[in-house]
Amino acid sequence: MDLVKRVKQILVSPTTEWQTIDNENDSHVTVLTTYVLLLAAIPALASFIGYGLIGYSVLGYHIGSVSLGVRQAIVQYINLVAGVYITALIINLMAETFGSKANFNKAFSLVAYAYTPVFIGGIFYIFPMVGFLAFLASLYGLYLLYIGLAPMMQTPAEKKTSYFVVSLLVMIAVTVILSLILAAIIVGRSMTGL
Fold first, then answer.
1. Are 138 and 111 in contact (CB under 8 A)?
2. CA 89 to CA 91: how far, in whole Å?
3. pLDDT score, position 188
């Protein structure tokens, strides 16, 4: 798999790319090591640069430091990688409830490739004041998830929307919970000097 080509194809022509991905039958370990771990570094590095080197100003006060940048990078990276795994696990567990075929490798590929706009949009974290653009880019990932359900999980058309809505709620919950846990651990440790 050519990483750049895959990113371009999933963003530009996702309908045909989902068919290609479905036919590849890659294991979740392959997708993790050749795609997720590499692309999750984009928002992590951008966060380090944005919060650690550039910083931002709020009401005339400059906020930013190398330690803040490191913490933000760690939170971003772990949140994305763990988020893909946990979301894929839950989507796979719910598959039969929505008339879909349970297959963790397919569920992992579905979530990993649907996260592509999140990974690529993370470049906006270089400038923390426009970080909201990363969120806007990630909304396209929801569309990718929606159209990927049928080919990847063999979801019937009549259950696709309900499966998507529940999957969306799971993704939001996983992201929020992971962010809170990681922030408490990492910020808590930095406050105590550990």
1. no
2. 6
3. 60
Cα–Cα distances in angstroms (integers) from residue 172 to residues 38, 84, 102, 161, 178, in the given order: 23, 12, 21, 16, 10
In the predicted structure, residue 193 carries a pLDDT above the cut 60: no
Domain residue extents for the chain: 3-192
Question: CA end-to-end span of the chain, whole Å?
Answer: 41
With residue 10 as reference, give the H or E element that holds it.
Answer: helix 3-12
Q: Token pair 């640069």 is at which residue? A: 49
Evaluate if residue 62 carries a pLDDT over 80.
no
For the record, the structure tokens of 162 come out as: 């309900």
Instruction: Fill in the DSSP letter of residue 61.
Output: E
- Which tokens go with 17? 């790319």
More confident residue, 180 or 77: 77
Do 132 and 162 meet the contact criterion of CB atoms below 8 Å apart? Answer: no
Stretch 67-81: mean pLDDT = 88
Q: What is the DSSP letter of 186?
A: H
